[in-house]
Amino acid sequence: MTDADWQDGLPAPARAYLEGRRLDEVECIISDLPGIARGKAVPASKFARQKHFHLPDSIFYQTITGDWGEAADEREGFIERDMILRPDMSTATAAPWTGDWTLQVIHDAYDRKERPIPYAPRNVLRRVVQLYHDQGWQPVVAPEMEFYLVARNLDPAKDIMPMMGRSGRPAAARQAYSMTAVDEFGPVIDDIYDFAEAQGFEIDGITQEGGAGQLEINLQHGDPIKLADEVFYFKRLIREAALRHDCFATFMAKPIADEPGSAMHIHHSVLDMETGLNVFSGPQGGETDAFFHFIGGLQTYMPSAIAVMAPYVNSYRRYVKDHAAPINLEWGRDNRTTGIRIPLSSPDGRRVENRLAGMDCNPYLGIAASLACGYLGLMEEIRPQKQFRGDAYEGEGDIPRVLGQALDVFDGAEALHKVLGPEFARVYSIVKRTEYEEFLQVISPWEREHLLLNV
């Protein structure tokens, strides 16, 4: 591959980024189960000559702490077999925070027989999207990303604190939609916009959320794989923008006690691939059976999928009454207390919002799991419960409240496993149970404070 091939084959934003410059390095990356970018950085000249590279499949057996769910490899012994990683050049984008001219390229994982690795997150999402395509449907999603900008935290034993704003005061809580609050983070937000523009990403808007230093970025609706790629990239660029200004960006579901958690709300619609029309709306603009079946699928199968959309022990701290996170699977129109919300829209834009997924989930897996629940509802023609009216926080919770319980429900969900892939479900459960067991070995400050001398 010559330099001319680079210019001809790259997406327009990447070509614009490199115009008049010499590409130095390419970061060849892939998402692991937590959503961490794994891979290699190679000189541009070498990348131009290589058609693929290798990483061991054990990257998908790693826990968030760096330990190994070794039983995830059910072959004899623990053999780290190399995968074949092939670049998807449509994902080539700038890494504008680096000191030289660098591109990132997302790769897809295959085994030596050219079969997709079933537990690679991007392959899991592609599998679900293909099931929709097989029915003549095109799923469309629009993710919303919530996150906190916080002061640097170098000691895990200390509480996470809001970052210092431009005014010299710590970020204030309960200032949702405040433009003054947004202005407090102006320099960080400016870099987020600049990095996003260099990477060719379109931000639909940035708002201040209810937590101290909590922001939300909305993305334009589109293809699920493309949007998951963007969320994967966005997490990295937001962290890099924050580090430039002596603060951290965190996507923990609940980083600060008594503050709202951070969600990745997922808006869903489904188009007929032949006509391009929204299958949730009929010829006269009314709500269709498909619309209700999709909701019914979310209500029926999301308890089984919570372990994927809320993947850590911290994730379940977010599901607290009156803290802007749902506690059940009620559905309602323009009702933010329900787990499933129907936003105000035109018939063409009719969509279903899943408010359960946390921002700590892997974007490929969170979107895949949510789409899988809706798909099962469509295929099984599941009718939802009656629309909820009023404050859903007054009702009882009907979702798992701890990771161990969520994994138990996930393990028994054969129908969901068939959609996501049985091998993915097996590996995911083993890795997550390993993490959960690691957590249970840790004694918390609360236990030491209240139990040490009192029980």
From TrEMBL:
Task: Name residues in a coiled coil.
Answer: none
**Keyword annotations from UniProtKB, A to Z:** Ligase, Magnesium
Which residues are in the GS catalytic domain?
121-455
Q: Which domain of life is it from?
A: Bacteria
What are its GO biological-process terms?
glutamine biosynthetic process; polyamine catabolic process
Required co-factors: Mg(2+)
Gene Ontology molecular functions: glutamine synthetase activity
Question: SUPFAM superfamilies from the entry?
Answer: Glutamine synthetase, N-terminal domain, Glutamine synthetase/guanido kinase
Establish whether keyword Glycoprotein is in the entry: no
Which InterPro entries does the record associate with it? Gln_synt_N_sf, Gln_synth/guanido_kin_cat_dom, Gln_synth_cat_dom, Gln_synth_gly_rich_site
Q: Answer yes or no on keyword Magnesium.
A: yes
Q: Identify its protein family.
A: Belongs to the glutamine synthetase family.
Please state what the protein is called.
L-glutamine synthetase
- Specify the species: Primorskyibacter sedentarius
